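This is your field. Pick holes in the following sequence-structure pair:
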Amino acid sequence: MSNTRDFPNATWVKSSYSAGNGGQCVEFAPDLTAVVPVRDSKDTTRPPLIFQASAWSAFITSVKRTALT
């Protein structure tokens, strides 16, 4: 994980688990190949956290698996 790059051309997607009331929301940019940047949707001026695509995929798989139990 890193937070040193900017992604001006990324297409940001808000998490489907984020509430629509402006509360705690995260966004991610799934359209990149090797990395997945993740940011706070309330403060998009801060640099995103950057995850290797394989680590992000493993995280999402784990979250989905946990949600089903």
